[in-house]
Amino acid sequence: MIALFHTGAAKIPPTLLPRVRQALCSHRLLCFLQGCGSTLNRKLASHGFGASMAAMSSFPPQRYHYFLVLDFEATCDKPQIHPQEIIEFPILKLNGRTMEIESTFHMYVQPVVHPQLTPFCTELTGIIQGMVDGQPNLQQVLERVDEWMAKEGLLDPSVKSIFVTCGDWDLKVMLPGQCQYLGLPVADYFKQWINLKKAYSFAMGSWPKNGLLDMNKGLNLQHIGRPHSGIDDCKNIANIMKTLAHRGFIFKQTSKPF
């Protein structure tokens, strides 16, 4: 249209000139608006919003700014050993607007009561002795977690976050039980969580007896990594949460106050 106007204006009948001018103005206005949109998108991207704008439009507003996906692996055997001790401590920081992973905390933990992993434990979790030998103990790892929480802005009172686990065992049994055994305090942020099994049952109307495997199957999702790898289980939890959020599910705390 621009080329036509500049190269052939003399051949355009006078009666058509107003329409040509109107079309040209509309074209210029469209280009201007597109340019503004690009500039806006660049500015949003510079503040961490750009890539998520499309995703935000497809998610309902969640009650939390961040979801902290957690899945422990612990010492184990048949028959079960006591006390069990956490040997893998992973957390994924999931953005509540986009349901994308923003940050990862992942450490292996040196067990102190039963420092030698059993063959059953290694076969189940994939964690070998060399992965825990020389690693920080639970007290030291909990200190690192608190430092990571502070660095990520999760301790700011204005930021709403909550842990998410596949079941109640991690934060109702495992962590408080080991902390009690070792005489360690349990931080308040570990005392409320979302049990993904309960959330899934509310959303889908059925209880996932086999945990992540049933939830992935029910949502037609591929399982990520190996079962009973803490970090891989976290990735599966995050993927299930994102899928449920896409379907309009609003996540709520399921644990009862301590």
Automatic annotation (TrEMBL):
GO terms for molecular function: 3'-5'-RNA exonuclease activity; metal ion binding; nucleic acid binding. InterPro entries: 3-5_Exoribonuclease, ERI-1_3'hExo-like, Ribonucl_H, RNaseH-like_sf, RNaseH_sf. Gene3D superfamilies: Ribonuclease H-like superfamily/Ribonuclease H. Its cofactor is Mg(2+). Residues 66-250 form the Exonuclease domain. It holds the Pfam family RNase_T. Coiled coil: none annotated. Keywords: Exonuclease, Hydrolase, Magnesium, Metal-binding, Nuclease. SUPFAM superfamilies: Ribonuclease H-like (SSF53098). Interacts with PRNP. PANTHER family: 3'-5' EXONUCLEASE ERI1-RELATED, 3'-5' EXORIBONUCLEASE 1-RELATED. This is ERI1 exoribonuclease 3. It comes from Chelonoidis abingdonii. The gene is ERI3.
